[in-house]
């Protein structure tokens, strides 16, 4: 019975028993206005507040992940950058470096205080780290991804970073962008850098919390001072150097997705196709392990050992029969 329930409700293992929700204003950033709630009447009181402070009076309610993977007894999230250099055909670059953001207090479900549950640096920087938090977590509340991998190595779980965490973060990014693609207005010769926030569950499966446009590049900690500078330099390598020379060094960016359009039985280079109106085509999705891989066409390979799309590797070829309108 539990197996059937788990198949019908993939989030059963992370939901917990406290009925905890996170409520977010729809038009604010940097963690402003976010709070945790357990009861419907509390949520309704919040969303029925003065509508003038919330544009269009919109809120986002997310089920809180009550069973996250903890780092030294403390909750954290993962900030992962990715770059979109074209929306049609969708072209996505994934940054192979990321960082962790810790809360200032040890994890507990007995309190709904934001110092425990909201890992956003804009929130946590206003709190003093708890004396009860593990001393190996820096006062600036951040780890490089290498530090986290070393932490996993101590638990004999480092292999899951490459086999579980990274592939599933890539897939989550791709699926999220495909969901939004038809609502985006393609504009050639443009790009955008995004910051995705993930929570890991106890099995190290990443769950996408949100995607941020214009992610902060402030050098507020030694971690961001190093990585934010690096990701900006590598972004320039992709959008300028690689465009002029396809073999150019792209730093720590790798292309994980390039959309291929197929017309009848022929494939075309979309750069050479110019029409005043878009064609209705079938969309073929190609997930690449790295930019060095060539575009692949052909039948869909068998992905043995993967039970659902969430755990399917990013190197697999998916054939999506979705008609563009």
Q: How does this structure look, described?
A:
The chain is of the alpha+beta class and 325 residues long. It has one domain (67-323): 2-Layer Sandwich (D-amino Acid Aminotransferase, Chain A, domain 1), CATH 3.30.470. The chain is 26% helix and 25% strand. The protein has eight helices and 13 strands. The protein has helices spanning 2-8, 12-15, 40-47, 114-117, 121-124, 145-154, 159-181, 222-244, and strands at 21-25, 35-37, 59-63, 76-87, 90-102, 142-144, 192-200, 206-213, 253-258, 260-263, 266-267, 282-286, 317-323. The strands form three sheets. Strands 4, 5, 6, 7, 8 and 9 form a six-stranded antiparallel sheet that branches. Strands 11-10-12-13 form a four-stranded antiparallel sheet, with no helix packed on it. Strand 4 and strand 5 (90-102) form a beta hairpin. The longest helix has 23 residues, at 159-181. The protein starts with a helix and ends with a strand.
The total count of strands amounts to 13
Characterize the overall form: globular
The span between the termini is 41 Å
The number of helical runs is 8
Low-confidence stretches: 270-325
The biggest beta sheet, please?
6 strands, antiparallel
Structural class: alpha+beta
Q: CATH homologous superfamily - what is it?
A: ATP-grasp fold, B domain
Write down the secondary-structure element order.
Answer: HHEEHEEEHHEHHEEHEEEEE
The whole-angstrom Rg is 21 Å
| The number of domains | 1
Report the CATH topology name. Answer: D-amino Acid Aminotransferase, Chain A, domain 1
The CATH architecture category equals 2-Layer Sandwich
Helix content: 25-40%
**CATH class call:** Alpha Beta
Determine the mean pLDDT: 81
């Amino acid at each position: 019975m539990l197996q059937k329930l788990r198949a019908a409700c993939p989030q059963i293992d992370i939901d917990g028993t406290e009925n905890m929700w996170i409520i977010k204003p729809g038009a604010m950033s940097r963690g402003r206005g976010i709070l945790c709630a357990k009861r419907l009447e509390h949520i309704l009181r919040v969303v029925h507040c003065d509508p003038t402070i919330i544009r269009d009076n919109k809120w986002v309610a997310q089920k809180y992940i009550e069973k996250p993977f903890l780092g030294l007894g403390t909750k954290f999230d993962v900030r992962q950058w990715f770059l979109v250099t074209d929306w049609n055909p969708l072209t996505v670059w994934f940054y192979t470096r990321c960082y962790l953001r810790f809360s200032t207090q040890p994890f507990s479900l007995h309190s709904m205080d934001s110092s425990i549950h909201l890992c956003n640096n804009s929130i946590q920087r206003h709190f003093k780290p708890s004396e009860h938090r593990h001393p190996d977590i820096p006062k600036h509340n951040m780890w490089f991804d290498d530090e986290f991998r070393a932490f996993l190595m101590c638990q004999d779980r480092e292999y899951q970073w490459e086999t579980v965490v990274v592939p599933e973060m890539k897939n989550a990014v791709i699926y999220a962008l495909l969901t939004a693609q038809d609502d985006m207005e393609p504009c050639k010769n443009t790009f955008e850098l995004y910051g995705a926030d993930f929570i890991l569950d106890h099995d190290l499966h990443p769950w996408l919390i949100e995607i941020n446009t214009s992610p902060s590049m402030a050098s507020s900690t030694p971690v961001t001072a190093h990585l934010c500078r690096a990701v900006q330099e590598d972004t320039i390598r992709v959008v300028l150097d690689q465009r002029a020379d396809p073999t150019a060094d792209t730093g720590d960016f790798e292309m994980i997705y390039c959309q291929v359009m197929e017309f009848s039985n022929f494939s075309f280079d979309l750069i050479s196709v110019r029409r005043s109106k878009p064609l209705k085509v079938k969309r073929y999705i190609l997930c690449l392990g790295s930019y060095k891989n060539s575009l692949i066409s052909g039948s869909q390979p068998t992905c043995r050992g993967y039970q659902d799309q969430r755990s399917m590797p990013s190197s697999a070829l998916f054939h999506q029969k979705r008609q563009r309108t």
